Amino acid sequence: MWDPLCALGALTAAWLLLWAVWGAGRAIYVYLLPWVRRDARWFRSHGAWAVVTGATDGIGKAYAHEFAKKGLNIVLISRNLNKLQQEAKEIERLHGTETRIIQADFTGGLEIYGAIEEGLKGLEIGILVNNVGMCFNRTLGKLLDLPNPAKNLSDIMNCNMMSVVQMTRIVLPQMVSRHRGIIINLSSLAESRPNPFFTAYSATKAFVKSFSLAVAAEYFPEGITVQTVSPAAVSTHIINNPKTGLLVKNVQDWIEPAVHTIGLSSHTAGCLNHGIQVPTLGPAWAEGCGGQFLLFAH
């Protein structure tokens, strides 16, 4: 005889089993099946140009090179003109694709976006990578322990949040008019919960996740792919280039599987290693997203 508690226990066990099977199956599909991955022609079919913010270092630089390998022309946007020029020459030399550069400091306000919009005019933009980001406290610290907190808080909000919104606003209309386009928004595992002593950074990444997933739902019927990317630790200058290992990925090792998830997952950690580090968010893990901040930024 089954009493109500036994029945509830059996239903719960069945649900957890289905959840685990779905999560494992989805992870295998997204990360481990080469034949489901999109090829270079699929990426080029969305438009001739890829635009990457924060494109001269780390993850942004890696995305720029990966899309250039697939035959897309690249627009590099960053604040350091010398690095932009060097990176543009390197991409043209290695991959034979055309490049353009736009110098912009994303800690600025609305006034910087007119020049960006002008620089992108006339280009058939198939891919936008909203990568640029900053984290002003690389060690534990309270919000008001920062030097010049008013400016630092304004800078991080402009760089991490306004850049995503405004770059999307600039590029999205032409994608909608062509009924195709890819927008990739870089978030972080920091998005998943409030993180004392990393307050502003994790809050900005929570905004990126919320904005990105909402835009994805709004414009999916228009043929637009919007992907939220929430890595754990990738060894870049923003976290002082820690030694790579089981938990910390090298940029080059991380970027290839991350690009392979485009078109397969709307919310991903980029690689299987990061996706299974903290499998606590239920179905979100199946999309490659962890559920806990490990005190690392992307």
TrEMBL record:
Record key words, sorted: Lipid biosynthesis, Lipid metabolism, NADP, Oxidoreductase, Steroid biosynthesis
Molecular-function annotations in GO: estradiol 17-beta-dehydrogenase [NAD(P)+] activity
Compartments reported by the entry: Endoplasmic reticulum
PROSITE patterns for the chain: ADH_SHORT
Signal peptide span: none
Gene Ontology CC: endoplasmic reticulum
Family note: Belongs to the short-chain dehydrogenases/reductases (SDR) family. 17-beta-HSD 3 subfamily.
Name used for this protein in its record: 17beta-estradiol 17-dehydrogenase
Species for this entry: Chrysochloris asiatica
